[in-house]
Amino acid sequence: MHVDTIYDRPSNTTTEIWTLPKVLGERYSADKDVVVLTSGRTGGVAEDIAYILKQMRRAIVVGERTEGGALDLQKLRIGQSNFFLTVPVSRSLGPLGGGGQTWEGSGVLPCVGTPAEQALEKALAILTLRRALPGVVLRLQKALQDYYTLVDRVPGLLHHLASMDYSAVVSEEDLVTKLNAGLQAVSEDPRLLVRATGPKESSSRPETGPNDPPEATPEVPKEEAARRALVDSVFQVSVLPGNVGYLRFDRFADASVLRAL
């Protein structure tokens, strides 16, 4: 693959850089994640490597925008003085970027922007998320098979999940957005939603101690008519055309009440 073209001004020559036809050592595997950490002081050949790996979608660049320097610099002495002039003498023509665009002057924009001091911590969090991706996809496939009511659309959803490209996913928000867009497009069902579930939020109510009295439990009426009235106040049930049952509830009853009803 043609990854770069370097122009050298002193010799007025152009050199093309290609990947090797075969791997000389053990293959690292395209399934493993590569993260490149950058800062505002990343320059020269390091910028070129980061740019190439990003454009090839082979690495996730995490950190700051690079300095946008030059591949090679030449220091020229001005006359017999102690003053020197530093001049770029070679440049990357960047065939991967298209249109002759390169990282020189503008720098390499990271996939995930974060201060350089926090780049390693952010990279480790991304790797943790990406290691969990296969398990997340498997659990989602199983949930669709077990619970999704539009069963005729399940095979298409399972195929879509298995064939999706997750290479650009670097956060839970990315994953949720990608899954919802893809699954809703395949199922044509806007109700099919994936949400990220974090740690359970702590209750705002004070914790009860061992000597505190238990909370009062609402009593369930014993009379049949009163129970039916309670059910009607909690649930609204309708049978729609096509033998479709519609159940609506505007509030959650206490668990003990639901169990009795």
Automatic annotation (TrEMBL):
Annotated segments matching region Disordered: 192-225
GO biological process, one term: proteolysis
Keywords linked to the UniProt accession: Receptor
InterPro entries tied to this protein: ClpP/crotonase-like_dom_sf (IPR029045), Tail-specific_protease (IPR005151)
Organism: Cricetulus griseus
Gene3D superfamilies according to UniProt: 2-enoyl-CoA Hydratase, Chain A, domain 1, 3.30.750.44
Protein's UniProt name: Interphotoreceptor retinoid binding protein
A Gene Ontology molecular function term of the record: serine-type peptidase activity
Keyword match Cytoplasm: no
Tail specific protease domain sequence ranges: 1-115
